[in-house]
Design a protein that fits this description.
single chain; Helix Hairpins; rod-shaped
Amino acid sequence: MSLSFHLFQLQKLDTRVSNATNRIAEIDRLLSQNEALVQAQGSLDSAAETLDSIRSKLREIEISVHNKRIKTEQSEAALYGGTVKNPKELQDLQTEVTTLKRTISQLEDAQLEVMVALEEAEQNHREAEAQFNHVKAEQAGQFASLMGEKSTLQTLLDRLSIERKALVSQINPALLETYTQLRNSKRGLAVVSVEDSCCSACGTTLTAAEIQAARSSSHLVNCSTCGRILYAG
C-alpha cells in the first residue's frame, strides 16, 4: 500500500466535509433571508393603509352629509313653519337651504367617487393579502425542506468526523502535517488521483516512471506542475 493511500482517503473525507459545511452555511444564509416575505408584507401594509384612509374619508363624507341634511331639514322647517316673519331672515334661510342642498349634492358626488376608490382598494387589499399568504406558505415549505437537508448534512458531518479521527490515527504525523499545509495552499485539494496517465487536478501528462513512483510505498510523489500529491492506486 502506497504512502499516499491514506492521504487520498483523507482527502476524499475532507472534501465531503468541506462540501457539507459549505452547504450548511448556504442553508443558514437562505434561512436568514426573507426578502420576498418582507416585500409581500410591505405591499399588504401599504394596501391596508390605503384602504383605511379611504374608509376614513368615506365616513367623514357620510357624517358631513348626514349633518347637513339635518341642518337642511331644520332650516326648511323654520322657513316654511311660519314662525319666522322677517323677510330678511326668510331670505337668509332660503339662501342657507339652497347652499346646503348644493353642498350635499357635491358631497354625494364625492361620496360616489370615494366608494369606487374603496372597491378598488378592497380588491387591492385582497390581492395583497393573498400574495402574502402564498409567499408565507411557500417560504414555510422551503424552510422546512432546508431544515431537513441541514439536519441530514449535520448527521453526515458527525459520521465523517468519526471516520476522519479513525483515519488520521493511521497516518504518520509528519505526513499529516505535509498534507495539511499543502491542502491549505491548494484550495483544499492536496492529494489527487492519476487518471489516464495525467494529474487529475491540472491535466499534466505523467511519465511511466512518475506513475510507478506514485505507487511507491516508500515516499510521496508530487505533480511537477501543480505540486499536489499524486495517488496512482
